[in-house]
Queue: 2 jobs
Job 1
Amino acid sequence: MKELLKIRGLTVRFYTYEGVVRALENVNFDINRKETFGLVGETGCGKTITALAILRLIPHPGQIECGSIYFNADNRKGPVDLLTLSEAQMRAIRGSKISMVFQEPGAALNPVYTIGNQISELIILHGRQEMARKALESVNKTLLKTGFLGSLFRPVRLIERELYHRIAKNPRSLLPRIASRIPLVRRLLWQLENEANKMAVSMLREVEIPDPGRVARQYPHQLSGGMKQRAVIAMALACSPKFLIADEPTTALDVTIQAQILQLLHRLKNEFESSVLYITHDLGVAAEICDRVGVMYAGSLCEIAKVDDIYANPLHPYTKALMAAVPKPGVEPQAISGTVPDPMELPPGCCFHPRCSSVIEICREHIPPMCEVAPGHFVACHICQGGTGESSR
Amino acid sequence: MIKLRFWLCQLRKNPLATVVACLLISITLGLILGLDWGEGFDLWSIVSLVLFNAAFLFVLIKRKQLKFWFHQLRRNPLSLVGIAIILTFIIIAVFAPLIAPTPEGHFDPYQIPRDGYSPVPQPPSEEHTFGTTQGQYDIFYGVIWGTRSAFQVGLIVIGVVLIIGIVLGSLAGYFGGIIDEVIMRVTDIFLAFPTLILAMAIVVALGPSLNSVMIALAAVSWPVYTRLVRGDILAVREEDYVEAARGIGASHPRIIIKHILPNSIYPALIMASLDIGAIVLAAAALSFLGLGAPEGYADWGQMINFARNWIVGPPGDPFAYWYTVTIPGLFIFMFVMGWNLLGDAFRDILDPRLAKR
Amino acid sequence: MKVLVETRNLKTHFAILKGLLRRPTGAVRAVDGIDLAIEQGHWMGLVGESGCGKTTLGKTIIRLMPPTSGHIYFDTPGKIKDEIDLLEETSANAKRLQTLRREYDLAIYPNKKLKTIRRRMQLIHQDPYTSLNPRMKVRDIVAEPLVVNRLLPRKQTRARVVDILQMVGLTEKHLPRYPHQFSGGQRQRIAIARALVTSPSFIVLDEPTSALDVSVQAQILNLLKQLKREEGLTYLYITHDLSVAESVCDSIAVMYLGKIVEIGRPIELFRSPKHPYSKALVMSTPIADPKRKRGRLVLPGEVPSPANPPSGCRFHPRCTRATEECIHTEPLLTAGDTGSVACWHPLN
């Protein structure tokens, strides 16, 4: 499997008191390596739920009914279905292989810990071995130094070296784990935090935060919105994940700051060679940053295409209506008649049919399958497929 | 007027409910007009029966909403237990004259009837279902009518304290500035004293009786509510719709009553329901110390006061007089626990709705 | 065209109180000397980023916030405004100045007098999810302005409420419902209905569509356009989204750190912005067309704090064309042939 992520038949339902909410219905799409995939849609169409489903963070009373999410991080090991993993295995993946940047930077950061603390916590959690190796190097260097103080602390340093050696060999070895529970002995592992802190500062420098050393010692409330979002991006990229999910990261920011963040994301994506699932409702932002775009409506995908194709030649009526509704200078925005359907009572057949201007009989009865009408351009619409549809991806 | 028509329309839709409602209303009216129901008929019975009818009509009309609340509560079965306990106590209190009828010739139904003057308590028997306590006061009668006293003390104190708390809290929270400072310093003064000690001092100053117990407990509990309401109002004051109301030109009282209070009062109400149990407990404590109801009054704390000398029996049989302590104690315990669970139930119902908003 | 709303040298400062004795040690200069004139029937857009003071300006104009100094005129003849200015400058005849100001200057109106003028100016809030009292029914929410000002007897109130709701696209069966039963777009319509029920002439719209989706935004904008035409309204449309302002406004004022830096027509602003900040805004706004990227003008740095604005021209720390003059002296808003700009070295 050469794609990074393959989602097939994902269906998510919420069982609430008032009824069953169909959040996602049969969602299929792929994300390739080193590509930015934009998931565009309005509020309530299910984009955030898709992201949460990938990370298996769907809140109660939601259930992932069926489907599979194949994630191929490591070409050697082959793809693994994320929906079949245990909670412990998912925890190992979250943050280190797949990480997420949320919409509100203020909400993603814990207000009682410093920025550096939060990033280093993540690094220690997933990169314990790496940190231990670095700590080992610096302890060895200190041991080489002689002198009165050096010889005084020599036994302590030797114990430290032994601990780090064990962690570097096996991050879950028993002795260091016991040691980290005993209050005073725990201090011996301070080098780990030190190394993690240095790494956190270097991550902050990567995201172009001025004076990263000082910022790492600050609390979230002392930073502005743009800086907080950069810090959150630093946290997300700290363990060099192969896949980054960005859920409307710039919606809460100003236009000029948004431009800065988009430029940053673009650069980082290339540097870290990761793929990005960029969720947004802003078509302009999607045009700026994405390579491929998928348009969602009421829990299912309408159209997937390369970014140039979808803006130059939108095929699905919803995509066309969405493009017309965006305010452009000098052009009046065209409203889409009707309202978004209640997710508990989705219309039969194609869920867009009540608002569609070119609806035909078959739209009311059968859900249109997603078909490839041009190379790389998929549409789920009866009209675009000429009434017949070959069921392929 | 329009609302009344609406309610009558609702009743007409459900004939069974209408029949039951008519029955209840006619019983109430009959009582008011003097249907003989034993000597224990008093203002309290009328008021509670009227409230019962009102509650029943409320249930009829808000059926859908109540079904939703029940569903919320089903997640926490203990809250249903709490509701059941309190309902039982309400029934006991309302029908006290039927359950434990006052004997003939007795003046004040709240004075427990005595069967002799011997100081030694008698164990439960045919005549006295729960036995008698020191001075031969009937325990059964005492705890049944004590339910009424408990409700009186709890509801009146909490009612008064809520009103004071809401008024002062809104003034302090909404206007801020010097009014806020003055009110907060006064509450600080009251909060500086340990509550029970201050209550005891007030009761002693006013002379021991159930009324002074109520006054003392009210005086000691109001600062907490004032602070609570003030805090919530500070939060709601900054909301957009309050600013919109100001933009329309609404006056201060209108903004407070129509906009701010309905949105900020729920935490205070939840705390109030939890506190009724605590108030009754404190009243029982004061009565136990002899600072509450007069001797022989039907009040749970008073009965435990009687049992003070009989907690431990003669050397060979220490639990000989268990019924003097355990039975009133059990009633207090169930009452307080019922209100605590009910308070939790309120929180379960009201909080998720707060979250949805 | 008659000028309906005008502000002259309007300032709104929030004092910062520090220390044990709460002494004012400084001020957040949210609105720092704004001269804005809005003509009748005009759709004026006010664009800027967060922290520039546009919301404060909007709320100060309709006196939801008290101004620190300056004048606000609503439907005042030009002669009176000029006379007040003259009297202030020359400090002659203080009594006449006092009388005139008490009569015409909204900035010093006492609360009682404000109540009479509030019916003619209304505000629509940004977030439709919090601007409606969640415990009031829709009919009470929309009828409240009429009830508070005792404008109509009870029966006529209900008729007017139904009228207004139909004007904004809702029906009578929505009356007894609560706000949480409606979607964001519908809630914003209810807020618009509440603003219109007293037949105002001037409405301040504080980012009314930023919390809504694109398609709903288009519906609300079309509704606003229709209402403006039918009722003869004047709008002050506050937004941070330049593309929305460009598509609906008659003229746009760009605000930065409490001062207006440019006023102009949308077409000119988009094609040839004169102030470097306006240019940066125009360049940073993403267009829904991958081929037309607006060019990589990414503005460096962050917006400075309004409590401590830079000296001279406020934009100079982030401006690539700043000179000595820009650091020391503040440029004034000078009117050109196609709008006004406050810059020592305007572009084009």
Note: Chain C has twelve helices and eleven strands.
Job 2
Amino acid sequence: MRLAATGANGTRARAAASPSPLPRARAALLFASIVLLFAGLIGRSLYLQWIDNEFLQEQGSSRYSREIELPAHRGRIVDRYGEALAISTPVKSIWAFPAKVEATPEQLAALARLLETSPQALAKRLADAGDFIFLARQVPPEVADRIARLAIKGVNDQNEYRRFYPAGETMSHVLGFTGDRDAGQEGIELAQQEWLGGKPGSRRVIINRRGDAVEDVAAIRAPQAGRDLALAIDTRLQYLAFRELKAAVEANKAKAGGLVILDAESGEILALANWPTYNPNARNKVAREKMRNRALTDVFEPGSTMKPFAIAAALDVGKVRPDTIVQTAPGTMTIGGRTIHDAHANGALTVEQVIQKSSNVGAAKIALSLPSETMWKMLAESGFGTPPKTGFPGEVAGRLRPAKTWKPIEQATMAYGHGLSVNLVQLARAYTVFATDGELKPATLFKAGAPVAGRPVVKPETARAVRRMLEMAVQAGGTAPRAQVPGYRVGGKTGTAHKLEGRGYTNKYVSSFVGFAPVSQPRLVVAVMLDEPSAGQHYGGTVAAPVFSTVMGGALRMLGVPTDAPVGNVILPPPGAEIREET
Amino acid sequence: MVRLNLLLLAVLVGCALSLVTSRHQARKLFVELERERAATRGYETEYGQLQLEQSTWAMPARTEKIAREQLKMQMPGPGRVEIVPAGSPR
């Protein structure tokens, strides 16, 4: 202001001295406009300094400081012994702005060699691309470093993580996989995203002329690495289960198959195998169909594997005893206009023999002697009709209709596993009722830290009686002698169910076997299911039982479970004398 | 008065120089710290890769393949297994 004032005085002085003085008004106008201009400048600078300062501050700080992202890696998934099943390791992706790439022919040739392509192909890709192109996704850090050393203008890299699955196809259904930015997309990876995923941090640093950090400014936001997750899976058992399931599916030309191994004492899922499967490390062209974890997300009508539940319900309320006689002759029974068949007529059977020979008529008669509520309660308490809550996303509940809606024929067919649907894990889990003294164990995919309490479903005497019947079913005279395991007493039940398609039953089958061992103190429950075996055999006793035998034998040996029978305990009936069952 | 001023000037110059050296030291140490941090990240990466490698080599599928094909091993049949009951003298 002082400057302006002096200027004005000067003008006035000159105006007084000169012969032709400027008009006073012009001087004042000039003065006013200069003052206004200065005021404008001062106003603008105040505005930039105090109000709209963001842009300039950003520009300033970008000249000397930089925000660096601190990556946080995703937690590992390990098996029950700490063996890694899923690990993320840093990789780099190479990208370029094609318009800005300046490379000599030698540089281009070297880059092509590192990217394992030809210089011509690389040049073509660059020419065809738009503004931005990924030259290579997820290359090893060493290769990325060598590319960076070529110092080609316009070619850059970025840090990424890639998830690797050492177990490959044997465990892909349980683990699932991750998608973009290493976030869970399927399976446990999806369900446990919150636990496994890391939160990247950041820090602001002052950089020097070369772009190296020289000083930290402001506080560092520390990255939070993802946590490791221990599954209940035992890698060795999983492999055994997978290998045997695959062999059985191929030998029987089945469409699909599943196998579950449960720890009878804790309910932990030690192995869960599915076929068909896929390799999670190279899944670019895998059909969604193969990615389904059928053992948890698909249901089927279980067939005769349900008979022990109807029998257990009757035993538990004291309606029958194991030696009560049930007349099953003539091998058929008509209820409400529909007829139930036995595979062959048996005559009078004890309740034990109904299970051993897998008689549909016997099971139906016993079931019909019960109020529908009692049978429904038994099935519901054994976990049917509710999702097994293993921690896997998308598991299904299966179908168990309320008892009030049951017609007598339905109650009869449900006794041998038709008219309701289950998934394989539910079925295996339900058998923990017989493998323990009547307790249903929670099935879980996660390693249990402490012993797990079950929920009592039936009386201990009932569970023991059914266990004895199930042991009879695998001995000579039962439906599944091929399920026997050398050195161990085993118990279990076959299932051979006609598949329901549209409105009626077809001549396609689901063959299954569920059992436990050693009977003296059960440690494992194994459930096997083969969908549409079509190599001539379809009975659960000939298709699924041998798989059970191999897997159960191998698993007990691997776990070091003491034997409870002499090695020569396996007695197979002569060829042709095997007892078969249908449903 | 002049002597006091000279003394204070000397102290001031001393302080200024020590500030410069300590800044320089701090920068040098920071660069070193950065280098070590980069090395840590490198080792973490390597650790992850080694874990992956170990896990891949140890997969039962591979073990079995080598046992069967290279070492010509096989499962003993039931007739060739003898079970020693727990607690027996042998």
Note: Chain A touches chain B at residues 73, 76, 83-85, 87-90, 141, 164, 166-168, 170, 212-216, 235-236, 239-240, 243, 486-487, 562-563, 566-568, 570 (CB under 8 Å).
